[in-house]
Amino acid sequence: MNTMTDHTIKTLKIVYNKYGKGNLLTFDRFLPCLEKLCNIMNNTNTSVDHRVAYVIFLLADEDKSGDINFDEFQKFWVKRHYYFGLFSKKDRVIKSYNLFKKYSTHGCMSIHQFVEMMDELGVYYEENDFNSINRNDDDVITFDEFVQWLKWY
Ligand SMILES: [Ca+2]
Ligand SMILES: [Ca+2]
After folding, report:
1. Are 131 and 76 part of one and the same domain?
2. 85-115: b or e for each residue (b if 16 or more CB lie within 10 Å)?
3. Could you point out which of 31, 100, 112, 126 has its C-alpha 20 to 30 Å from the C-alpha of 73?
4. Are 147 and 59 within 8 A, CB to CB?
5. Nearest ligand atom owner, CA of 133
6. Total domain count, the chain
7. Does residue 98 belong to any structural domain of this protein?
8. What's the pLDDT score for residue 143?
9. Does the pLDDT at position 40 exceed 90?
10. Which ligand places an atom closest to the C-alpha of 58?
11. CA–centroid distance, residue 19 to ligand 2 (Å)
């Protein structure tokens, strides 16, 4: 991260270790960390919406390991304005997550599930649409690929 100063990295490391308690940040550890950072940034003391927080967690967990490592945490911080902005787009964020959840298994949407979703939504699609959404050419659409395709936020 050449955009971050040593001081920022050091501070992030302290925050990361405080909430991770020497471990990786799983969602239950990430949530209080997110709440704290959100309150500092917005200068309020309100609790964050857990569903939106979970979506942020899913997007920040780039390698889909189920936890945030320090590298992912740094990237999360660089994109913090985007991530914290999701709280004000709550309805869309939750709607997209529910839609994805309905037509996916263990965080992956197969082509069959994609076709089922499009049919049930009554949206026109072409065979090739799945391939263009599935950016990394594996056999499934993950939540981040889904979100990039929706362009809702
Ligand atoms: Ca991860
Ligand atoms: Ca994929």
Report:
1. no
2. ebbeeeeebbebbeebeebbeebebeeebbe
3. 100
4. yes
5. 2
6. 2
7. no
8. 96
9. no
10. 1
11. 30
Residue 33 in this model has a pLDDT that exceeds 60: yes
3 state SS of 124: coil
Residue 1 lies in a domain: no
Q: From the CA of 46, how far away is ligand 1's center (Å)? A: 27
User: What is the DSSP annotation of 30-41?
Assistant: HHHHHHHHHHHH
Phi/psi at 38 (nearest 5 deg)? -65, -45
Question: Do residue 11 and residue 81 come from a single domain?
Answer: yes
Residue 94 maps to a domain: no
Q: Which domain holds residue 109?
A: 103-150
- Ligand nearest, relative to CA of residue 67: 1
Residues with a beta carbon under 5 angstroms from ion ligand 1: 61, 63, 65
Q: Does residue 75 share a domain with residue 108?
A: no
pLDDT at 69 over 50: yes
Greater confidence (144 vs 38) lies with: 144
Distance 119 CA to ligand 2 centre (A): 21
Arithmetic mean of pLDDT, 40-50: 82
CA of 91 to the centre of ligand 2 (A): 25
| 74-128 tens-digit pLDDT | 999 999 999 999 999 999 999 999 999 999 999 999 999 999 999 999 999 998 9
